[in-house]
Amino acid sequence: VEVKIEVVIPEKERSKEEMSPNGKASPLIYKVNGTARHYHLEEHPIASNPYHNPKDVVEASVCHVKDLENGQMREVDLGCGKALLIKESGEFHAVGHKCPHYGAPLVKGVLSKGRVRCPWHGACFSIGTGDIEDFPGLDSLPRFQVKIEKEKVYIRASKQALQTQRRTKMMAKCISLSNYNLSSTNVLIIGAGAAGLVCAETLRQEGFSDRIVMCTMDRHLPYDRPKLSKSMDSHPEQIALRPKEFFRTYDIEVLTEMQVVAVDIKNKVAVFKDGFKMEYNKLLIATGNTPKALSCKGKEVENVFNIRTPEDANRVVKLATSKNVVIVGASFLGMEVAAYLAERAHSVSLVELEEVPFKKFFGERVGRAVMKMFESNRVKFYMQTEVSELREQEGKLKEVVLKSGKVLRADVCVVGVGAVPATGFLKQSGINIDSKGFLVVNKMMQTNIPGVFAAGDAVTFPLALRNNKKVNVPHWQMAHMHGRIAALNMLAHGTEISTVPYLWTAMFGKSIRYAGHGEGFDDVVIQGDLDELKFVAFYTKSDEVVAVASMNYDPIVSKVAEVLAAGRTIRKRDVEALLVFSLFFRTGDMSWLTGKGS
């Protein structure tokens, strides 16, 4: 038996093109306010041979058909690139072998019920189509067709697909864009972060061909915001999520440096700071958070920063090099900035009100282990105190005075003491906002106002994992999913959100992965060695595991995320069974997880 693999267009996307007699895509119809509008997907004729250039094709023998058991994955080399070969339920599948997000090897990920989950950041891809099903990231995997002949496995694939290891799903284009009134749009997206961009892309992927306008206070097109604190010297073009040509190609308009100051829900009008008004049919609010500022004496002095833009991050790196840095707040941002600057600055001091970093999120024991790692990298902590004054010399920061009386030399200060939802402009709009300023949405990301959706860091939504408790989850992955769910429901799909929260942080070349929602946990069960920074921490509430974190034990967090996504419950007593759990530490076997709980 032979297995042959070749690149094909997924059936799901092929069906969208509904071939006309001339071989081009027939126009489909989407109704806007009852009015039929036509759209075309990109007109790629579908031929029986998906390779337009025979010279771009490679074929190689990679293994015997019996080499893979059900549930196994293998990374196979074709000479000019690799593919991921998968066997599940007796069938072979093949897709790209690298996660399009940051390039993680998917062979080290988790295979479960028709999809593979990235071991690093939790993105999920269908093994049948290669489509991205959970985030982060924007692109899908290339899919290769599998054929079985004789008893050898051959892969036939496009060299280009093997080299790029990513695939952008087909998208519709806007029809007659030049005929639109500039002050009117069908979909208006306020905010150009992950939620806003994924919403716009999903609309186009689903065949929506009317006008889409995104507006942002930022001067840049959407970019990879987590890198602002993890890779601070990155320039905007290096961290852009999509190039300028992408937005032109798919008619997604982005208005930069444009601030919405009011929304008239009765007349469906957004009012901008400069007085410009734009009508909309559907609205997505994805404005994110606004960082809190210090309220102490001297807060206006120069060289005190909240990291909000690439320019902020670049400026801090430049000012901090060989200088004294004070970071206020042991938040994710504060800790990541401290780690990044530790080798560049003369000194890095971190001021925090709590006694241990990350105590509320990771627990005291994990927090102390992380703190120890920072101290071994020359970061000095000043805990259980606050800043009382920022002193200047010739207008620039010179010293940071703490309430404990300690005076720290400081040439630059980074503030990471939390954030508040950027929803102040909506207080008189009639859109439901809770006491903390968060927009309240249902499982379909809809607000209380018809046609108005909200997504990202500024919302509370029902989390299926926690019995539909309304929660705020300000994670990069979750913002992506919010945007997708909002777009699908703008098109009346009736899709409810059910994803498992997943995040990561990177410090000194080490990453902590985290899945679930541990708010209110009452105990932490730790397996492994905290001193060696090789551990798994299970966060429990009563007898139920509600979240998991790990360092240097991939893909345990992705495995637990899959178990939770399947609706199973992991009990505290299961993770406390040391003899059972030690099996994973010896062999990497996690099969014990799949059969536990309800």
TrEMBL record:
One of its GO terms (cellular component) is mitochondrion. GO terms for biological process: execution phase of apoptosis. CDD domains: Rieske_AIFL_N (cd03478). Residues 60-155 form the Rieske domain. Pfam families: Pyr_redox_2, Reductase_C, Rieske. Keywords: 2Fe-2S, Apoptosis, Electron transport, FAD, Flavoprotein, Iron, Iron-sulfur, Metal-binding, Mitochondrion, Oxidoreductase, Transport. GO terms for molecular function: 2 iron, 2 sulfur cluster binding; metal ion binding; oxidoreductase activity, acting on NAD(P)H. InterPro entries: FAD-oxidoreductase/Apoptosis, FAD/NAD-bd_sf, FAD/NAD-binding_dom, FAD/NAD-linked_Rdtase_dimer_sf, Reductase_C, Rieske_2Fe-2S, Rieske_2Fe-2S_sf. It is found in: Mitochondrion. It comes from the Eukaryota. Induces apoptosis through a caspase dependent pathway. Reduces mitochondrial membrane potential. PANTHER family: APOPTOSIS-INDUCING FACTOR 1, APOPTOSIS-INDUCING FACTOR 3. Belongs to the FAD-dependent oxidoreductase family. This is Apoptosis-inducing factor 3. It comes from Leptosomus discolor. The lineage of its organism: Eukaryota, Metazoa, Chordata, Craniata, Vertebrata.
